[in-house]
Amino acid sequence: MLDSCFEHLETTGRNPSDPNFIPENYIEVAIHTGIHEKKSKEEIIFSFLDVIIAGFDTTSVASSSTILFLAMHSEYQERAYQEQIEVMKSSLEAPTREELSRMSYLEMTFNETLRHVTAPAVVRTISSQFIIEGYNYIFPEGAALFIFNHMFMKNPNYWERPQDYYPDHFLPEKVAARPKSAFMPFGFGGRVCPGELLGVHSAKLVLSTLIRRYKFSTSLKFEEMEYNYMLMLESDKGYPVEVTLR
């Protein structure tokens, strides 16, 4: 991708070293910034590789999982479809940002999917010592923490039906009653996932488009799901769904 972009720039006579250079896409932004900051080719590659992985690879897994889970739960799929009709009427066009913002139930289904298939764990290095109050457990400076996301995303203290696929977990009043740390699929702090907004908006756009056109069913059962531990949890049986036109 980087080599192709360099070739295109050369062919079109556009020089990314020029301080007045105006990038036309994200890779050109990475090249222009990398040249300005005297970065190597490898460093330029990694500067946009994270966004591609965070914004697209994980989004494809989450979107595919949402379709599979809705295929397993026809009642939730119907509620998502009825919301689409309410917001989009008979239109099959891509939703606008404003229309996406009104698809609250679609976002609930997507968040519930993330609760089940998000990245298995997050690793952090402690910058200064701290103690967990009440347990007198000391975490020394420089220690590495391996935080298992699914331990708190399925904690029955915070989730009404922790092992089920239940979009109502994300009703506004239930979200308000939980600590924010009970649901952090994109990480937290200064190293929060850089592709969060891109991923969420891309997924909602794709899901909206598909749900308005098709109905999904599958022979797989949610309670029988098994996963491969990859960047996210991925169905070990793939995403087999039967698709019919609405």
UniProtKB/TrEMBL annotation:
Keyword terms, alphabetized: Heme, Iron, Metal-binding, Monooxygenase, Oxidoreductase
For this protein, what is any one GO molecular function term?
heme binding
Where heme binds, per the record, is at C193
* Record carries keyword Acetylation: no
Question: Which Pfam families does the protein's record reference?
Answer: p450
Look up the record and name the cofactor or cofactors this protein needs.
heme
Q: Does the keyword GTP-binding apply?
A: no
> Membrane-crossing residues?
none
Q: Which Gene3D superfamilies does UniProt cross-reference here?
A: Cytochrome P450 (1.10.630.10)
Question: Would you identify the family this protein belongs to, as annotated?
Answer: Belongs to the cytochrome P450 family.
Report the protein name in the record. Answer: Cytochrome P450
